[in-house]
Each structure stands twice: as structure tokens, then as C-alpha cells.
Amino acid sequence: MKTRDTLEERIYNFSSGPAALPLSVLEKVREELLNFQNTGMSVMEISHRSKHFEGVLDRAEGGLRRLLGISDDYAVLFLSGGARLQFSMIPMNLYAKGKPVDVINTGIWTQAAIMELERLTEYRLAASLEKENFKRLPRLEEIDLSPNASYVYIASNNTIYGTQWHEFPDTGAVPLVADMTSDILSRRIDISKFGLVFASAQKNLGPAGVTVVIIRKDLAEKAKDTIGTTLQYRTHIKHRSLYNTPPVFPIYVAALVTEWTEAQGGMAALEIRNEEKAKRLYEAIDVNDFYYSPIEKADRSVMNVVFRIRGDREDLEKQFVGEALKAGLGGLEGHRSIGGLRASIYNAQTLEGVNALIGFMKEFASRNG
Ligand code: PMP
């Protein structure tokens, strides 16, 4: 059996993030590392105001705009501070007094966003699946939206629980804001349905350190002047993400990743490939009495496949993770808050890697079942 990318020492990496990057992107980084475009310098050593870096920004922004069909009504920003900074920046910029934010609580990442809303604004829970341990998403008729909300907040993919919105709520004139950290660029998305979309890079976009924010430009104008300059989206729009020194290296790798993504055939092709990978993996879980998926079928994530060994056998799950790693399959432990197993199969994970995991799962089940 041929294993692991093309380089024997590399493993199939199923980590939830920082996650696997396409091998060809890493090779390109290595090739260009010491002398970027004949500058005689690494991309890490050139001025962020140089025409060379402007070229990198153009490539990263252009790639995202083409892949997601982002219109000129939206700005595409490359910011620091991780997805978590957005949990504060969004309410600071988009909340209007007397118009509580509507939140749909689907897990730890929306709860972390709620923690910041509690400090900064009023909010209401339009739906919460906490009582059901976040094992499914709300059905559209279970969501109680207010027409008076400043915005509606969701996480499009719940990295920890393994749920994903396959149909988004219609929020009418109220802007829909989505944390797409763990599923951006995994499927076709109509950005015009959203007021703001954000994603930190370390799953489908590149290395950690840059967060992409796609924001409808008119919404950025709503922020009060009393918030810090660097915390205002309009500052970054005006300065094209160059107000403070941006994370140049992660943006450079993100440019390469968007180019790789386009070369794969863009969102339509990746959507098909990602669905195929997930389908195979869920089938392997469902047909085998040894494993089960705790997630309701309709809401299962195509990116983060969460599963357990029947009886919630933590001892066997630990053994599974250890033996899988020895077989060249890494990062399969569930999130520390809920345990179990999780295979994150972002864009860079190959079908070959998924098949290798399925083979290991069958073999492990027959030995321990
Ligand atoms: N939102 C989601 C959906 C995530 O999966 C993560 C990280 N795994 C975060 C937010 C937090 O991202 P960061 O560490 O970049 O702040």
C-alpha cells in the first residue's frame, strides 16, 4: 500500500487545525523561501508596502474573490488576532443600541462568541442546542429570529461537535454573520446572503496567524468613532489591510493555497470531492457495529467527522489514536472538551488518506471488537 502524500516520512494529518496543507504548496514555499521573486530576500524579509507584497495581497484577495464570487460590495480583509478577535470586533462594529444580537448557539465556538457579546452588547438566543449536547443543529422552524436584531450570529461548521449548516436561515433584512473558520472554501457559498463572514486561516486557508474577514462595506460604516482605530473594520478597508503590519508569511501561504484551490477546479469540484470523502468515512462508521456517530445524519459535518467506539470506550479510543499514529494517521483524537475521535478532512486531505483511515478503522475493529 502506498501511504502518505508522496514523501515517505509525511503522515496523513487529520488534525482539526492547524491542519494539513497541500504538499505542492509546502514545496512551493520551500522553493521560494530564500529568494522570493528574485528580490534576493525571503517573503518574510520584504516590506509589507513593497510592490512585491502588494502583489501577494492581490493574489490572496483575487483568489478568494474568484473562488467565492465576492462582489465589489464586499471588502476582503486580512487581519491578525485569530477568529477570537472577531468575537469582539463584530459586536463593536455592528451592534446598534436597543437592537440585541440574535445568536444561534451550536457549541463551544458560538459560546465563546457569546462570552464577548455579554461584555459588549445585548443579545438573545434565537436557538440553543445546549440541552441536547449540540448533537444537532436547530431546524429552521425552531429558530426564533427578531426583525429588530443588529445581526444574526452563527457558526457555519462546528469544529468540535462535527455539525455543519447545510441550509442557512433566511434572516431577511437583518445581516447574517457567520464564523466559517472550519469550512470556508470547502463548498459553494453565496456570500451575498451574508453581512459578514470570517475565518481564521489554519484549516482551509493556510497557516495560523491571519484571519480573513469578508464584510459588506456599508456595514463597516456603522461603527462608532469611540472604538479603537485598529478595531474598526473601516480602518482596514481604507488601508487595504496594511494599517498595521499584516502577517505577511501567512498571507503569502494563503495566496498559494487559493491558487491551489482554483487549480483543483474551484468550489464546485472541491465540494464534490469533500462530500465523497465524508460519505465514505461516515459509511465506514455507520456500517461497523464497533463505531458510531453521535451526530444527527442531516447535520453531519463534511469537514470534521466526529465518532466514537461503542460503549464510549475511552481506553480503546486512546489505543486507536496511538496505533493510528504508528500507522501514519495523525491527529485523530476528539477535542479535549468532549473526548472521542475526530477526523478532520479539510481540502488538503486526500481521498487516499481517507481510504487509509477507513482501512485502519476496519482492521482495528476486527482486532478489538
Ligand atoms: N471558530 C471556530 C469554528 C474554530 O474552529 C476555531 C478554532 N478551532 C475558532 C473559532 C478560534 O480560532 P482562533 O484560534 O483563530 O481564534
Description:
The protein has 369 residues and is α/β, with parallel strands linked by helices. The protein has 2 domains: 27-263, Type I PLP-dependent aspartate aminotransferase-like (Major domain) (Aspartate Aminotransferase, domain 2, 3-Layer(aba) Sandwich); 266-368, Aspartate Aminotransferase, domain 1 (Alpha-Beta Complex). Helix content is 36%, strand content 15%. It contains 10 helices and 14 strands. A 7-stranded mixed β-sheet has the order 2-10-9-8-5-3-4, sandwiched between helices. It has a 3-stranded antiparallel β-sheet with strand order 11-12-14. A hairpin with a 4-residue loop joins strand 6 and strand 7 (163-164). Helix 1 packs across helix 7, helix 2 (51-68) packs across helix 7 (248-263) and helix 3 packs across helix 4 (108-120). The protein is globular. 44% of the residues are buried. Bound molecules: 4'-deoxy-4'-aminopyridoxal-5'-phosphate. 4'-deoxy-4'-aminopyridoxal-5'-phosphate binds at residues 17, 82-84, 109, 155, 159, 179, 181-182, 200.
Count structural domains.
2
What distance separates the N and C termini?
24 Å
The fold-level CATH name of the largest domain is: Aspartate Aminotransferase, domain 2
What is the tally of helical segments?
10
> In what range is the share of β-strand residues?
15-25%
Any idea of the CATH class of the largest domain? Alpha Beta
Bound molecules: 4'-deoxy-4'-aminopyridoxal-5'-phosphate
Q: Spans of 5+ residues with little confidence (pLDDT < 50)?
A: none
Identify the CATH homologous superfamily of the largest domain.
Type I PLP-dependent aspartate aminotransferase-like (Major domain)
- Helical residues, percent: 25-40%
How is the main sheet built? 7 strands, mixed
CATH architecture of the largest domain: 3-Layer(aba) Sandwich
Radius of gyration (CA) equals: 21 Å
Structural class: alpha/beta
Order of helices and strands: EHHEHEHEEEEEEEHHHHEEHEEH
DSSP, total strands = 14
Summarize model confidence as the mean pLDDT.
Answer: 96
Label the overall shape. globular
